[in-house]
Records
---
Amino acid sequence: MNGLVFFAPVALLVRTQAGVSEHVFFLLQALLSGVIFLGEIPTGFITDKIGYRKSLILAQMLLLGARSLLLAAFVSRSLALFVVEAVVEGTATCFTSGTGSAYLYDLYGENGYLVKTAHAENFGTAGFIISTVAYAGIYKISGMEGLLITTVVMDIIAVVCSFYLRSESSKSMIADRKEMQLQADTRQQGNSGDTIYSAVQMLAEPILEKLSDGKNGKSGRGKLPAVTATTAGVAFLLFGVVKFRAAVLLLMLILPLLLNLPEYLLMDLENQFVDETECGSQRAATLSVLNMGVNLVEILTLSASAFLTKIGIQWCFVFVGCFLMAIALLFARIQK
């Protein structure tokens, strides 16, 4: 349901049509990342106290509040409400940061985590595709307000659905984990019951499944972060300078996939690190601490983007491309 963000294709326009400049938009995004950075550890400890399921429900309710505030901010053209919305959305993200990862890891274990994480993300991608396709019709009928209202309605449904999540201590969850252990040893190719998606981004699941099944799965996954970061960096550089429309569309298709693969692999490594340090009882808090580095990077890149827009939006992509290639070099050095 979280993928059903009907204003996503025009997220920037939601703010700019309400009088927010591109410069301020990037600062609002930096504020969002700043809230996440500061709230990671406190919300992680809260999650470990109340449980993953309750934390995910709370996050969904906060996200509903954030979407409602965004609608109010757009209608009233209030910068103050946009600021409050960023704070509430950041808090909601804090409660999901590490929680969803820990929930899936407890459910499926190390053997099934990677594939199931990609599978879960595919539902969000499917929602994004649906909302993107439906966006034109909704916008034509009811304008930007209609897009925001539809998103709020979907978030209400998401809150209701979140109450049906199983507790991490349920017997069925333990059974699922044992089943994934068995499937890791006797996995068969293909699954006719799975939904066939057309989005390139959804190729992450079969790619990771193939790597997990292969004899050199771990070594292949070890090399993948550096390879994909390099490829994504080059793609971002090209995206910033290429003007040919077909090339731009191709880059837009492959960039999400290139970014998702190392992200999932790093999430898996984080959970393995938690196991090795015997911090399983505080998994959410530990993952939140690790995620603070990600938030810090987001703050720096978004702040830089806010100023780069003054000399040209294409320089934002060039900057990100160079940054990704630097990360790829770091990965390569660590692997040696």
---
Amino acid sequence: MTIVAPYKEKSTINLFLMKIFTALFIGFVVTSPLNNSYEIAAMMNGTLAASALALGVPAWTAPLTPVYIKALKDVFFLFSAMLVVAGCVKSPKRARIFLTTPFIPLNLFAIIVILSAFSSLTFMPTEIVLMGIRGYWSLGLIYAGAFFYTFDERKLYPFIAAVFCFHFVLQIIQFATDMGFAVFFQHYRSPGLFIIASTAGAFALLVHYFAIRFHSIPLKIASILSLWMSNSTSGLFILIAYYIYAYRKTFRPKILFYPIYCITVLIAGYIMIANLGAVTGRGGGAAYSGLTRLALIYGAFSHLTSLIFGQGMGIATSQAYQSGYSNAVIADNTYLGILYNAGIVPALAMMVFVIGSFRYVANRLLYMLFLGYSMTTVIFELNPIIQIVLILLGMHIGRQYATHPAALKSRTSKPRPVPCNKPDGTPASFCPGNVVMHRG
């Protein structure tokens, strides 16, 4: 086992690119509340339902925010991609990370999706195909995160916290005044800045990740309350699963208590599922939502032979459904969406990447957020939160593989983080620049 010394950035141009990327990333976070601003304003002044009715869509899918505001996330992606390309041209060795183990399924996914898009253009409307491609290009931010792995999360933390404070205050107002909206049978949801409850739940978990990372107890408590007000069942189960996993080691050394812990978790899990409506506050809506998702999975597997190559790029996107495309499919599951859009192989490639990402993330909450929501919704539509999650995930991967050029020489190496202390003396789960390499 070899301990690799911290890797210092030698290229002035890469330092310059990092500064630009940092400014872009912070700017994206600061402007993220604009993404659903018109829908939230309409919800709070009582005109959302009427606007949705006029458009013939459910309240939570009414597209009211202007396209030029929605396009901010696309502009961010394009500029980030340009920075990565410029960095790879200047420092080709750093591009080797895109050939390492975690990127193999992603590269395969990208190739097949592009080929599928070209094929779909022969029998589907161009705008639907472009909607499908647009849904997946946010995955490119994983590459950006891996390339700019030296980014310091402490620079992002105060801006995440500031946006969350605004979001949390809005949620309290919406909850106290019933300004939210009802979906199926449950109590009014209070989505804060993000009209989709899943997005609000994902943001609460993202903030909880930062609260854990920087040891902020008030932020932990506030993010849990925010998650509860969002009525995101998936988010609630993800948080519970995280803490069950996080505290497993407390009982593992105790031979007697560890089985008791496991049995207790199983019993508690059964009770929660049996009383899902009461636990989540959604009444019969929680069970209805879960059964609907299971029905979608059953329907897809019942016609699996017709989905080997998918049914056309973009057919399983919310944009296709909202545009009134007759063959549009509501997937409510990332892998089902890929299956309908591009076929079995890219769906399996994405599953391999998501499952394989587990070992690269020191704080498992970020991974569980990605995994959990990928199974209960089309995660690429959780804008603008998914963009932040993908960048952070890429950074965790990058820190493992690109911390030192030696890490790129072995495709079978399994680096893991080395614990260290922060400048203030408190323990950190990972210090960028230090990895332990297993010889392989």
---
Amino acid sequence: MPSLISEEKVGFEIKLLDTCDDGSQTWQNYEIILYVNGKARRFYNQAVDVKQEIVQLVELNDNSAGRFRFNLSERNEISTLQKQLEAFIENPSKQELFFEPADPSFELRIERTRHSDAANQVLNLSEEEYKVYLWVDAGNSTRLMYSWDAEGLRFLVTKTKLLSFTNQFTTV
């Protein structure tokens, strides 16, 4: 499971669950686990709980209501995220990376840290240290609720940690 954890034990994990096919597209269900100082907070939606609430609004028979999920059909979002990470790390002039799945459930932004002199003049972007921002949304499109940024993390990681996170997607 891909995880990005700082030296201070702050970070997140994307835990891949089952896949499902809704007839036209294939989806990879997942949960996000946030870690802060040895404590974990899990974000996922169980279709059983949500389906009871929205069955009057729309006919959903595929058990996908309320799931956090990556699209694997139109554009394989897991592969897309890995390629974006690789391109970002390899291009030192690129300042930031942004990723949000088509079925919104989280937002990931990674920035190169800036080094400045005593007069606060930016000298260059770091190739060894990165700021990571991860915001988990309160809802998603299949849940018929759109709400942004329920909880999030902001932390620093080294290039080694970011490369490890990127490489973990190849084993998925």
---
Amino acid sequence: MQYILLSTDGPVSLYEVPDKIAKELTKYCIEFLKWAENGPEAKRFKKGYRPEQEFINYINNVVNKNCIYKSQLIKTIANTDEEKLQVLEVTEPYKDYPYFNF
């Protein structure tokens, strides 16, 4: 399991996900967005949703449904305004984590 950072033009949150997801985070996020738009639950997403939490649900229930280790939120660490994002980018231990903003 590895840490990643996710946000939706708001607070940046730290999540723990399987290694393969962390290594190809952008790919999995784009696949999730396509799934959310066209997949079996697309109607539910039309009314608005929290993409970062739904992404974690997608990883747990669609991509890795048979995995015993579940992805999870660890904590919210910063807001995405410019000043705080720059601090986030240079502060250990977060600076090297994969990051995706929905």
